[in-house]
Amino acid sequence: MLPINVFSIATFISAIGDTLLLVAVPIGLGVENNDIRMAVLMWLVPAIAMFCSSFLGKKIASRANKSRTDYAFLLASIGTIELLFSVLTNAFPTKVSTIVLVSIFVFFYALLREGVPRLLYMVSVYRYFCKQEEYAKISGRMAGLTIAATLIGTSLGALLIHTNSWRYALLIDAITFLILAGAIYYRGHDVAPDSNTNAPEHVKFDATTTTQNFILWCVPTVFGVNALCGNYLALIANHKNLLTVLNSIGLIAVLRLPGMLSGLSLGRITKRISPSTLVITVGTLLILANLLFTVVPSYLSIVLLIFAGGLYVGIFIPSDLVIRSTIPSSHLISFNTSVLRRMAISQFAACIFALGIYQGGLDNFHLVPLLILFIAVTNLISLWLPKVIFVLPIAAVTWSACIILSN
pLDDT by residue (tens digit) across 83-93? Predict the structure, then answer.
């Protein structure tokens, strides 16, 4: 079997596990305790981990010539850690022990899966299996397979939540990590970095193009917006008596299918529409869809938000990767570090806001639209005044404290 086919199968299996974990753990914890804040916590802890991982860029740059084997061992480490925590969470199922154990696990998960790989490996991984000219085609195929895997993972997650067996998602996901690690290690090939790959971390990438500036703004904003609302769509819809949790999850699985079809055709789409146009259009659509749902929570706005989420995974993410794959290696890690830190800070601040908003259920849900605009504007301003972004967590904590004290 060709290496690219092995990689496709392994990525598909791993994407099922990732989706299962992201659906089952936060929503399962929220449903089990009848408290949205439990789900918020499962996104707050990863934000801290991602911020910490952004300081590892120099170390990763110095080992760029070993990136394939490093990534394989990284994935294998996550799988091993996850196996341990899957045993512990099932052995100690009480509320306090579950929250503590899952919080510790998601920290390591985010550090090794959502943090470190974003500095280099998520851009480089396709290069282990294809030529540069095939990058857009392969990344599109992977995005399409990811959406298909999302359908399966989401459905399986709904089943585990319904049967209160969501803890087993850790075990299943751990196995998929080991499969992907094996595919990268045994079937991938090393990519020779250019002469500047080992440049020091302090070498900054000057994002002069509109597209790269938009990535610096849009990606962190999307993560922050989702941490306010989108990540808890099923729980919010249930509290608003719009849809049950299981119906919401089912709708998410089905309505993301258009994203799968578009992702599979990304190679042809990018011949007519530039990746920069796709990034700008889909990113803006997702932010506006989140805003619409918070202003007018209805069945129609839920449908639009889910549909936009599918396009985000199928079109935005691979287009983003295509753009980053053209950035010189000497500047790639620096650019990715900047994006990752903004993502972490936006998600952290949004989660702090969310904890305050959902203190009394959905009593303060009317504040979410204002906070979405606040995060978007703050991130936009930070493009010209980078230090402004660090005001966001302080403002978030202050605002949330006022909300909590007023109840």
Answer: 999 999 999 98
| Side-chain-side CA neighbours of residue 242 (13 Å) | 19
* Cα(403)–Cα(387) distance, integer angstroms: 26
What is the distance between the alpha carbons of residues 76 and 97, in angstroms, rounded to a whole number? 25
Residue 389, domain CATH: 1.20.1250.20
What DSSP assignment string belongs to 331-391? HHHHHHHHHHHHHHHHHHHHHHHHHHHGGGTTTTGGGHHHHHHHHHHHHHHTTTSGGGGGH
φ, ψ dihedrals at 326, nearest 5°: -90, -5
* Percent of all residues in the chain with a pLDDT value above 90, rounded to a whole number: 41
* DSSP per-residue letters across 78-109: HHHHHHHHHHHHHH--SHHHHHHHHHHHHHHH
Tell me how far apart the alpha carbons of residues 28 and 66 are, in angstroms, rounded to a whole number. Answer: 38
Give me the number of domains the chain comprises: 1
3-state secondary structure at position 3: helix
For residue 47, what are the domain limits? 3-406
DSSP 8-state code for residue 314: I
Distance CA(92)–CA(81), nearest Å, equals 17
What token pair was written down for 290? 């989140």
pTM: 0.84
- Nearest-CA neighbor of 233 among 145, 314, 304? 304
